[in-house]
Amino acid sequence: MEGNFVFIFLEISVMIFTAVLVRSLISRYGLPLLVGEIIAGMIISPFAIGGFINSIAGYDIFTINDFALFLSEFSLILIIFASGLEHGISPIRTAGIWGFLGATMGAVLPFSVATIVYTYIFGINEALFIGVALGATSLAAAAAILQELQIKSKGVDFMLSASALDDVVDLILLSVVIAFSTITSRSFVNLLSITAYYIISWFIIFVISVILIPRIVNIAGEKYIYHLPFVILFGLVAIMNVLGFSPIIAAFIAGVALAESYSAEKIRGLTETLISFFGPIFFVIIGAQVNIMNLNYHVVLFSIELTLIAIIFKILGVLPFAYVVLKNFRQAFSSALGMVPRGETGIAVASIGLTSNFIDQNIFSAIVIMSLLTTFIGSTTFKRIATWISD
């Protein structure tokens, strides 16, 4: 047992070192950092160099074990928590009806297209998870691009608010899909009741959390500022998990609620410190689960197909509503394009689908590649036309 723990800690240290190394290399070319972290995982995975080292050492040093998966889920919770904490409720509050509709259609349209197309190829469970992954938008990626470019405009405000709401819509879709995939009696009435349950439950929990959590933190004061936020985070994760919600939904709500407290800046600082260490672990382990030896012609073609659906129907879903708000096609198009990256949200859906046995290794790999491609294409193209959104 002691030897196993030595190998686990060795594996984690190598993961973090490799992630930092690859990130430093790709940052020179302006690529998203999560791309480097996933590539690092692919390099040291048990299906690649890690497996070669295992065979030479005679021990399974690099494995996808339960401890690694636990660390991955813990890291994911922190990443989504930080995303909600970074922006709070203001983007959601200021979105308005058109921002809400744009976010909803931006998630629902690619979800619906993917579900219809792939149900007859893979089955309903697989198609639903593919649809949720394609419906996502990476709020973290959108915010990172805007922070790097330092631009402000009405189009930027629409993009941020719609991205935040898109996350909400897609996370609710994820809860509905998980619940629907586990029931035996599948009917239209059951689907409606499940959807209503999660929408109403999410809304009630969200409102209560945003009202109560900041007040609790404010009353507690500075003395408990380094402990209470994480008691709240993991307590809410536990409660919502019992109610049938994914942990990442609870993490997002906790982050949004804590962003409204007086101590939000200190909580952000503490979270950023934790993310700097634990954040890369999620993406490295995701990369390590991609069997690059199985990336045949069909998987690559499938991932390109997913990428095209993700880009085209995200833009088609968002663009009309962005145009109604902005009255400028170039601004509206650039706002929609900025929501193309799937980033950590699409990868999180893939991870949940794989660990829950709703999708297989090939679908998982294709979704991860799609998330990388949309993040790369969306971010680099947006940077090239960034002046459009500030016209």
Key phrases:
single chain; 391 residues; mainly alpha; Na+/H+ antiporter like fold; 81% helix; 0% strand
Strand content: under 5%
CATH fold node name:
Na+/H+ antiporter like fold
- Relative helix content: over 70%
N-to-C SSE series?
Answer: HHHHHHHHHHHHHHHHHH
**Number of distinct beta strands:** 0
Q: How many domain units?
A: 1
Identify the CATH class. Answer: Mainly Alpha
Low-confidence segments, given as residue ranges, are none
Task: Summarize the structure in words.
It is globular and about 60 Å long. The longest helix is centred in the middle third of the chain and has 33 residues, at 188-220. The chain has a single domain (75-389), classed as Na+/H+ antiporter like fold. α1 crosses α13, α6 (96-122) runs parallel beside α9 and α9 (154-182) packs across α10. It contains 18 helices and no strands. It has helices at residues 2-26, 33-44, 49-57, 66-87, 90-94, 96-122, 124-135, 139-149, 154-182, 188-220, 228-242, 247-258, 264-288, 297-326, 329-337, 343-355, 361-384, 386-389. The protein is mostly helical and 391 residues long. The model has no long low-confidence stretch (mean pLDDT 83).
